[in-house]
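Q: Give me the 3D complex with calcium ion.
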Amino acid sequence: MAAAYVAAWAGDVVRVLDAETNDLLANISAPGSMDSPYTLALNPAGTRLYAANLNHNNVTVIDTTVNAVITAVPVGDNPRAVAVDPTGTRVYVTNGGASTLSVIDATTNTEIDRDPDVPGIQRIPTGAGPRGVVVHPNGSRVYVANSGDGTVSVIDASTYSLVTTIPAGSSPLYLAISPSGQRLYVTNQTANTVTVIDTTTNTVVGTPIPVGSTPFGIAVNSTGSHVYVANSGNTSGPSPRSVSVIDTATNSVVATISHNQRNASFLAVRGGALPLTTPTPTLTPTPSPTGTATLTPTATATRTPTPTATATRTPSPTATASPTPSPTATPTATPMP
Ligand SMILES: [Ca+2]
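A: Here is the predicted complex, encoded as structure tokens.
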């Protein structure tokens, strides 16, 4: 069985779904600590889930084998996105309000200080308003999309220093990297395009690819043949509330999958190319304990089956102890900040 994780940021909860049946398995919360979980990332083993809490300046560490919170690691202002390196020992977090990148040592769940000789924690400078972050499959580079200045920062993962800065489009938000690591794809929120970057030369390939309205999250399939873009939707823009499918052989959109979910902002892809007539499972409404569908913007991460995954599917008592949404949860959709 595979599990899917949903960051229900307006409800201060991470939902655990059965990725096959979409059944709600558990709600994970940490009152006073996990506040507005905005994006999620799993470690390669699928044993740890990291949630960047936009309004609480920390990252929640969750043990996925028991669906329980282990700890929270303080980071910089307004953490937006989180990514785990291929070894599972380093977790990178963009601090959108501080224009820095935090690095967490996943073996100790503490933030790494770039300069121990200077008081406080020195973080890696990025461009303005960093949002998405991805790690090269070989672990050597970290890429950050800087929404405030239209660039992508390339960071050396061994020295935590800036390698170069690459121009992207207007308000680059999130990124995805091909399985080979040779191509980086960046959504440009206000340009309604995707920029393609060659990571061997750190240069832009061709012209930006036109996609739907207000492109947000982006993912590459396991073979690298297709890229999927969540168009979070502005009804006056092109193809609102849709997913654009890009063929990476031609760098052009080969399909646009429409749906009716407002602010469906992130997506995850499992496996190779999907049948183009089937919406991805992550675009279905978030199950709500009240029985009504909520249109809360969500971020998802999907865990592929592992030998240990099927042995620990029973939600822990603590995970099921709070089935009702918090009072701050809103039944109506609000735009992703
Ligand atoms: Ca220091």
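A quick observation: The CA atoms of residues 136 and 181 lie 6 Å apart.
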